[in-house]
Structures are given as structure tokens and as C-alpha cells.
Amino acid sequence: MKTLTLDLSGIYTAVTPQSIQAWEEKSNQYQQQLHAGTGLGNDFLGWINLPCEISEEQLSSIEEAARGLQERCDYVVSIGIGGSYLGARAVIEALTPSFEAYQTKHTAPQVIFAGHNIGEDYLSELVAFLRDKRFGLINISKSGTTTEPAIAFRILKALLEEQVGREEARERIIAVTDKARGALRTLADKEGYKTFIIPDDIGGRFSVLTPVGLLPIAVAGFDIRELVRGAREMKALVDESVPFAENPSALYAAARNSLYQAGKKIEILGNFHPRLHYIGEWWKQLYGESEGKDHKGIFNASVDFSADLHSMGQWIQEGERSIFETIVSIAEPNTTLRIESDEANLDGLNYLAGKRVDEVNKMAELGVRVAHIDGGVPNIRIVLPKLDAYYIGQLFYFFEKAVGISGYMLEVNPFNQPGVEAYKKNMFALLEKPGFEAETEAIKARLK
Q: Rounded to the nearest 5°, which phi and psi values hold at 76?
């Protein structure tokens, strides 16, 4: 079976192979800390062995619950924010044919996302769309009180109960939450909702292989067993026992930190496949939330090529030389389409006649790589043999293991996110939430 591959040859205009090799001792040390649980954030390391610990019973239970929603619903709204949203959306978007939403018949419910913003128009339009539709809800929240998903759940739960009654609504709502505490756990126990547990030792951005990600993905009709299998295979390939020079996660972490030390403060994750957009969104949270601390860390951005070559391409080619790029490439598309000859040839494309569209795409990718390297943008290339659940599982675990090592190289705790609370405190104060009276008075005085 083929596996994900990592190509660092495009970074050696900015750093040397020796600078990467120099990280070997620390990389080995940090891997040992991750596996022994002796480093920073060691109470959130449940993701490390997760691919090998997911049981047949757990997978079957998730699949059974998914079938229950599939039988009752044409649409399922997955409610969550951050890690309770991005992993599932990334996988579903990557595996769903581009025009599936426009089909009149579907083999599985359409999964819609809510609770990831506080847009009144978004929620109003969603309510209007779901009215008189067969829909269900997956509410994903550790506490049940996170503002964005809590608002969405309150509104959509009321709509569902209005349409089908409280008894039937119980069969169409699944809660993914804490095992014992929190408002959502209390409500789920009271109402008798089917529930799945968010493990205490796995943070949101690492949770895609828990029910947080697996349940919505299964509802959408995709093979969660293949996703887990891919992650399990990658776990073996990036294990602490694998030598540094053969360990893609360790090498990626070392390359990023070498480039950071060389003044490359921005990493752009790019792709040449339109269905990878939300992989970039998931990656931005994984790396930004893990490393952006203590006034340190690489800034993460993402682009979709070739479209963004006609917007961001100019800046990437000739802007400030503080960037490097990582490209996720798909070796072989899932379909075949060739460019035909045209007798008039008014567009001048007959030189491409007989070629696959993907061959043109691959030459665009290669041309971009050479141009960017020549322009002072180091290039890391990650290649997936094809775009399917198995290789996405590999990619996710590769990135997760690498960010753990990379965060330790940066000397930060990659498993907390204290800065996320700052906006919440201000929002609660401005909304005059009970318990924030002093903060309300202080912030209103500042804003006079």
C-alpha cells in the first residue's frame, strides 16, 4: 500500500540539510516526551494512541447511530465550532463530489454545519430552509454553553420539536459531549438523547477521530473505518521508534522550525484540488492554536491554487520574503477527462489535445513550485497517492504528530489555547452576562 510522502528538496535555498539534521536529538527527545507524557500539556495526549485504541464496538456504535439519522433525515445539522466543526467538515468536503449538493437524489443525508458563527442571516436562512424538511441534529459541545453552538442548538431544537414533536425529536438529536458534566450532558440525560463522549484527554483540534468527527462523517455516508485505518498506518510510520531521517512528521516539524529561525514567519498551505479547501481550514486551527503563544509561532494561511494564483499569486511571488509554502498534492485523480482537439483552434489549445486535465494541473503545480522557489519562497511538498478516506486519515495523523513535535521545538505548550478566552470575556461583559458585572462596568468605561 502506498503512503503519504514528504519532499523537502524545495527548501534548501533558504536552509541547509544540516540545519534540518541538527534537530534530530531534540526531535527524538520531544517524541519521547509525547509518548511518555512528560512534556507540556501532557493531560491532552489521548490523540497519540487513538487510532489504535478505537474499538470495533465504538465504530459499530457510531455507524449504528449514523444509520438511525440516515433513516429519519434528509438533512443533518452538525452543530459545533473550532475543533468540533472543522475536522468533520474537512473530511466531508474532501470526499464529497463537487456538485453533489445540486443532485436531486442523494445516497445519504446532506450534512449542514451550524454553530460556527453568530450570523443572524445565516441562522435565519437555515431555519427557513429546514422548515418542513426531514432533519436531525448532532450537537457537539464539551460544556453545552459555548455561545455560538448553544445559540444554534436552542433555535434549531425548538424548530425540530415544533415540526415533529418532542418524542420524535429525541430520536433525531444526538449529543456529543462530556461523559459526566456540563449543560449538554444534563440536557441529554434529561431528554434521553443518544450520546457519545468527548474524551477528557483530547483537545478539540485533535478530535476528528473521536465521535466529534466520526459521527458526522459517517452520517454523510463515508467510510470511517478507512479514515481510522489510514491514521493507524501513519501512526506506525511516525512512531518514536522510527529514525529521524525516515520520520515524515519529525522532518516536517524540523523543516518548519529551521525556516522559522531563518526568518520565514508565515507558512502558506496550498493545494491544487478544489475539494481540499477545508483541509486548509482545519490545518490553520491545528497549527495556529497549537503554536501561536508567548509571542512566538509561525502565522498560518491557506490558498487554493490555481484560483488564488490570480489573487495571492502576485504577493507570494514578489511580496515580502517572510514566507514559505507547503503544498498538498494529489498524485492521481479519481476520474479521467481528456482535452479534445478542436478544428478551429481559436483558443490555441490544440497543443494540449489528448492530454488529461490533470496533466495540465500537474504542470501548473510544477511551474508554480519552480517559480516560487526562484522567487525566494521555500517549498515543502506533501503527496497523497489519491484523495480518499484512507489517505486523509494518514494526512491528519501526520499533521497532528508533527505539530506536537513542532510545538515542543518552539518551546510552547501545543495543547492549550489560553488566548481564545480573551474575546469571550469581553463579549460576555458587553452582553452583561451575570457574573461579569465588574468586567461590564470596566469595558463600558473604556468604550465611552
A: -125, 125
Q: Which of 183, 212, 223, 219 is nearest to 81 (CA)?
A: 212
Q: Could you confirm whether 281 is annotated as catalytic?
A: no
Instruction: Please state, as a whole number, how many other Cβ atoms lie within 10 Å of the Cβ of residue 26.
Output: 17
Amino acid at 34: L
| CATH for 5-39+228-416 (3.40.50.10490, 3.40.640.10, 3.40.190.10, 3.40.50.300) | 3.40.50.10490
Angle between helices 224-237 and 56-72 (to 10 degrees): 150
d(CA 291, CA 414): 6
Catalytic residue among 93, 240, 289, 325: 289
pLDDT tens digits, one per residue of 161-208: 999 999 999 999 999 999 999 999 999 999 999 999 999 999 999 999
Q: Is 37 left (phi over 0), alpha (psi -120 to 50) or beta?
A: left
CA distance 247 to 401: 10
Distance CA 437, CA 427 (A): 12
Q: Which of 143, 144, 91 is nearest to 113 (CA)?
A: 91
| The one-letter amino acid at 325 | E
- Residue closest to 203 by CA, chosen among 73, 83, 350, 361: 83
List, as one string, the DSSP characters of 366-405.
HHHHHHHHHTT--EEEEEESSSSHHHHHHHHHHHHHHHHH
Spell out the CATH class of 50-222: alpha beta
Domain 5-39+228-416 and domain 50-222, same fold? Reply is yes
In tens, the pLDDT along 327-348 reads 999 999 999 999 999 999 999 9
Report yes or no: 10 and 325 within 8 Å, Cβ to Cβ.
Answer: no
Mean pLDDT of the chain: 96
Question: Distance between CA 363 and CA 360 in Å, rounded?
Answer: 5
Residue 94, CB half-sphere, CA atoms under 13 Å: how many?
32
* Contact assessment for residue 33 and residue 277, using Cβ atoms and an 8 Å cutoff: no
- Among candidate residues 216, 213, 176, the one with its CA nearest the CA of residue 198: 176
pLDDT score, position 431 = 79
Backbone angles phi, psi at 385, to 5 degrees: -55, -40
Helices (runs of H) and strands (runs of E) counted in the chain: 18, 10
Active site residue 168: no
Out of 106, 133, 424, 425, pick the active-site residue.
424
Please identify which of the residues 105, 190, 295, 310 carries the catalytic annotation. Answer: 310
Our answer to whether residue 424 is catalytic in this structure is yes
Q: What global pTM score does this model have?
A: 0.96
Q: What are the domain boundaries of the chain?
A: 5-39+228-416, 50-222
With cell 491557506, the residue in question is 302
